[in-house]
Inverse folding.
């Protein structure tokens, strides 16, 4: 059976991420993608940047497409490293900064969360809180 996050899972992940974002005082855009990298749900918290809607969705896609935290992909995609230029692939859908994390169930990737609206550290922390709720 093909395992993937569903809407109920996405709502639980988003609720946990929203709670963390509120706790740190930073409104965020939070996206959850399924195992195929398709958007399941998205929330733009009051006051979150409009420009971060697209970024959060693309972070979720990127994290699922490569089954890696975007923070780690960013490290590997700097000039001189093995994935330099990867951000230009997939018709511009690849985001190489912190805030995307694969969602796992029983050790298997079943989707991803993408968060945008704060610093990279804030985005990653909020994504981690969401991922932990799965």
């Amino acid at each position: 059976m093909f395992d993937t996050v569903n809407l109920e899972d996405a709502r639980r992940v988003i609720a946990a991420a929203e709670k963390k974002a509120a706790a740190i005082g930073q409104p965020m855009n939070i996206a959850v993608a399924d195992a195929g990298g398709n958007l399941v749900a998205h929330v733009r918290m009051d006051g979150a940047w409009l420009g971060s809607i697209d970024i959060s969705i693309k972070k979720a896609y990127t994290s699922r497409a490569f089954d890696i935290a975007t923070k780690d992909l960013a490290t590997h995609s700097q000039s001189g490293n093995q994935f330099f230029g990867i951000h230009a692939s997939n018709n511009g859908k690849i985001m190489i900064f912190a805030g995307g994390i694969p969602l796992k169930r029983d050790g298997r990737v079943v989707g991803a969360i993408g968060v945008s609206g704060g610093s990279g550290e804030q985005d990653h922390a909020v994504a981690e809180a969401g991922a932990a709720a799965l």
The domain at 7-132 is CATH 3.30.450.150 (Beta-Lactamase).
